[in-house]
Each structure stands twice: as structure tokens, then as C-alpha cells.
Amino acid sequence: MTIQLYMDTCDSVDKTQPFIMGIDEAGRGPVMGPMVYGSCWCPVSQQDALKKLKFDDSKKLSENAREKLFDVVLANSKIMGFQTVVSTPEHISQLMNRRTPVSLNVISHDSAIQMIESVLKKGINLQEVYLDTVGTPKTYQDKLYKLFPNIPKIVVSSKADSLYPIVSAASICAKVIRDSLVKNTTFDQLNLSESETPNLEFGSGYPSDPVTKKWLTDNGDKIFGFPNCIRFSWSTAVNAMKKQSCHVVWPPKNNAKPSKYFVPTSENIKNKRFQYFEQNSISRIDNEF
Please, which domain of life does this record's source organism belong to (predicted)? Predict the structure, then answer.
């Protein structure tokens, strides 16, 4: 499931003037919590005002500094708007565990595309879009140009959140929203007794974090695995389940291959009728003629 949160620019802002847009994400790598894509937009004429707000890459800022800058975004609807797309752990796992898996890069691209489309539908005259790269920058950039031929300038760059203030603002929105969602995670699915409280010491949520690994080891259910705040498609979660969960073996009957049970029934074999028809003496009409 994806969730959208946004704040539009004030109605007094002329949407026909040229606008600039920045896009970035937070939470791409963690095994725990959602991936949040954020975007900000403002009139091209307001770029100097945007620089004075002193946005920076969210990873370089403290939590307190990020929250203060997010308040700055909320207080400046006269010059900018923002939106986020939240991909839940369930949504990510569902797509990546399909028979034909959907890669995280594709999920990321789709989130960015969804936000660009959403802003265009508002009637905003997007003339420039800046994005932090996912995959090869040129390949991603060419893909966006094909989808949005009416946007004259699309720039996909590594470290875009450090290079372009509008992307820095988007990065802050994404990070603050994700942090809030992680903080408010409930662990009802851990099946704890009334006297027990969930262990909230889960670290950064990144697979390499020893605290996160320990949380996975201590909080997995032997039958059902982990609560829905965990990405089941991550190898860290898969390996933890392999170590601590019950193993189930389904031996084929009489050592027959499983494919045997999916072979269509021969036309010469008459299917047995439901008991309801036999008990009520109901027969097929075509048998009477």
C-alpha cells in the first residue's frame, strides 16, 4: 500500500508561472519501516527566497534541525508545496516477492513518477525537475524525458540533495515523515501478553546494525515470522527466519513429483458428482434426450 501526504501552495500563487521541483527519498535501505519519497516545488522566481531558508541534505542534519526545517516548509506555503509517497514494508515485500519480482529501483522510479504526475494534474507549470539518482543517472533521466516530454529540464544526479536546495527540502520532508512513522510503529502482531511491553530498541533499522539484527532475532514468531513493519523481502529478515522459525517439509505422496498433481484430468475420466445432486435425484437434462 502506498500513502500520499501533501501540502499545496496557496491558492493565490499563480500556477501558470514556471515551477521547479525536487525529489528525494528516505528509508530505501532499512529492513524495518517504510520507504518515503518526498517532493517539493516552488516558482522559479522564488529560488533566491528558497536558498535563504537554508535547506540541506537531511542526512547531514540532526533530528531536531530536520524538524525545524520541516516547520519552515509548512510555514511557507506562499512560495512552496510538498508531497510524500509512503511505500509500506508490506507493499515493498509484496512486489519484491512476486513470481516475477519488482525491483526496489522500479518501486522508487514509480514513486517519483507518481509525484510528478500528481503535481502536473494540479495544473502546475513544471519546467525543471531535479532528482537524486536511483540506478544509472542517464538511464533514469532518459526514462523520465520519454514520460514527460513537456518538461524542458530534468536532471538526475547523485548527491542531488546536497547540490540543489529544492531537493534538500524534499529530502527533509521525506526523512521527517519516515521518522515519525517509525516512531509510531505499533507491535500488536508480536502477540504479547498484557504484562509485556514491546522492545523498542531496534536501532537504525539498517541490515548492518547489530542492534537491529538482535531485535529480529529476539522478536520473530516461530510460525508467522515478523510483524508487518519488517520487509520480508530483505535477506536479513529471511536469514533470521531461517534460523529461528519452524521448518515445514511437504513430502510428495509416494515420492511423486509435485507437478503430477497439476496435470489436467483426462477427458475419459468421469468427474464424480456432488452428493447434493445424487441425494435429491437431480440429473442432467441432456441425459433425458
Answer: Eukaryota
What's the predicted TM-score (pTM) here? 0.79
Q: Return the biggest CA–CA distance within the chain.
A: 89
Tell me: is residue 278 an annotated ligand-binding position. no
Q: Where are the domains of the chain?
A: 2-182, 203-249
pLDDT tens, position by position, 193-205: 555 666 667 777 8
> Over the stretch 243-282, which tens digit does the pLDDT of each residue have?
888 887 776 666 666 666 666 655 555 566 666 666 667 7
**Residue 25 marked in a binding site:** yes
* Nearest CA among 125, 171, 173, 167 for reference residue 148: 125
DSSP bridge pairs for 25: 37
**Does 196 carry a binding-site annotation?**
no
Q: Classify residue 153 by burial, with Cβ atoms within 10 Å: 0-12, 13-18, 19+.
A: exposed
Sheet holding 153-157, edge to edge: 2-7, 81-87, 35-43, 19-26, 126-132, 153-157
Which overall architecture, per CATH, does domain 203-249 show?
Answer: Orthogonal Bundle (1.10)
